[in-house]
Amino acid sequence: MAISIQIDIAKVFCNSIFKYVRDVNNADILSKTFGLLAEMMKCAPYHVFDAAFECNIFTSQLSSPSSDWLLSGALARMLFAAYEGNGDCSSLTSSVLDFTTQVLRKGADADDIISPLIVFSIKYIMINHVNWKHKECSRWKTTLRVFELVKSCLQVKPFSSKLGGIIWEILLYDSSVHGVLWSILSVLTRLLHDSYRSNYHGLKDIEDIQLVLCNGLDIIYHILSNLPEDLLPNPPLVTMVLSSSLKPFSFITALISLMSFHSFGMQVAAARAFSALCFIAYKAQPQLMENASFTSDVSEIRRLESNISCILDEDDKNNDCLVVAVFNLLTSAARYQPAFLISLIEQSTKSTDHNASTNDRDNRVLVTSKSNARLVDQILDYIDRSIELMNRSPLVLLSILDLLKALWESGIRFLFILEKLRSSVTFWDNLSRCIRATLDISPIDNIDAIDEKFSLRYHCQGKIFEIMSHELFLQGKLLTETSNTVQDDPKGQKEHKSGPCRISVVLKWFDNAILADLVSNLSSNAYKKELHHAKVAACLCIIHLITKLSTGDTGSLSFSFMKKIQIISTKLLQHHAFLALLSQYSLHGYSGEQELNNLVLNDLYYLIRGELEGRQISSGPFQELLSFLLGFRIFEHNPLEQLQNTYLMANDKFLFDVEHIHDELGVDLWTDSDKRSKEVAKKMLDIMSKANLMKYYADAKLSALMSFLKFLSVYKGANFYRFLTKTWTYLMEAYQ
């Protein structure tokens, strides 16, 4: 008689951890065990979590092996012994970090249970790994894994507030974590600097160093750009990055140095961190007046100006992300650190005038004219290419226009820059042509004809209208000041010497036909249909997963998502409409609770699929169940769970976090034998992506329309206010 024996490998591995961790000689096999569990977590997360919970790897219980004993005692001792005895702990450390990362990604909702493992990995491993012994070229790989775990922790924040709160408290207030983070960044900055002057480091080692630096800067950028508004007093991390007495050099010095390396990823990461630093320094200045000052070192300003000019001079179409990051940095400086931006402009002026003076050495006089600023000339060069950028890379054009808007918002403060821009022969003409170009290439509100570039073009259009509004306001202010100056001192000089402004080129361009086209084009809105389509697709996927899970097949669904589906399933089966359908089906001779449930779920699935294909469900219990499912909105992005990003350049709003949903479902790991599940999930994700695109498109048009109406109110004067108010009320009702 054949005997069938089933062995739960996940449970065997989980139980073996407590066995191996008792003997420090088992470091290698323990490393392999954690590595295998990490891989299994990707394929069958719910099953691995179930085994781990049963074996008490995470939960703390006084009478059994607990996470407190495992993490603070045995595992810590094992990691310490690995580098003391073997001279290398990178293998075990990497395996533990990989396992922790997968636990975090697949089980964030179990934050009460997994928190000890996450905290142990951040506090113990992150702080101590820099002092452990590693094989050649493996140290920075371990550090890279530590930083990747921290980045994963920060990404989990919107979906797990309790665990996220613990993580953020550590990152903001734990001085030991700050010390290690800065030690790694400063050491690697110096190593990278030395490597460019010698061949001491191999190419692969340099690549690892650059990756670690990029991830470290990304961590700081993410933290600084997502600090709560009311976070007072300033956390120690903020104090550290703003301190001018930080050793061996300040954070801003490190950023300027890293922006000089010809490494695309490094320069982008440094520019983004620099942008956030400008904002944080502005917010923290009242509390940190002594330390929150930007560099006054002329050599550093000269170096940064030279780096920025070199980046903007490069004619590389693959360099767009870096150009955007640089213009965002200049925009952040214009809004939050104007004195710093003026120093950069003055430095670029000196560089230009110095080059121009080499042909006139006999006079031995260097006349500095701010109108010769190289950075301003480069901005004008980009505006001259605005139509090309509008077609090829509207994101670059948008970043430039955002900088221009920041300059015009400040008005008099940057008047010496604005004079050169606003008096340019081609400046206003190029901007007006961008408005016309957006109208000429705008598609019908059809998802198949729209891509992200169309949305960005409307954002560009809106920025141009805002710039024009500020220009009209500035003209009035300058005219008033000039009149007052003449009245006070008729023989005196004008306080502001305003060059000829050619915005009249734009104003003449507006006629009734153009206005009608603009209003008609900007006021159309068709994304609501796509939103409903995506919600119905989500309901279809949920019903399919409920049916799938009823057979015990959890597949690659994350532990967090499994719990959500189980809750929905329980509530759905208890819904009065579902119970009414069960009664109806039982009258037709069907019996057995599971059979009846499956029949109702199967019919509900095909009716929802029909709704997705355009065949509406008639009123009745099935329609009630669809409405019930639509109310859960488990796939929809919840703004209340989003980090309250106080930094200007926050991510755009979206309806569905497609990347997160994709990871929760584990779609890539679904086998070909389950083609139906894969098709349902991929179709849902595709529809969600299109809904996001249409939402972004509609928001961009609404933003452009708002800017256009504000421009008209400035242009037409106070009499236009009543019309603007009525129009605005109508539009807001239409977009609800």
Automatic annotation (TrEMBL):
Domain of life: Eukaryota
One of the record's GO molecular function terms: structural constituent of nuclear pore
Listed InterPro entries: Nup188
The protein's name: ARM repeat superfamily protein
Organism of this sequence: Zea mays
Lineage: Eukaryota, Viridiplantae, Streptophyta, Embryophyta, Tracheophyta
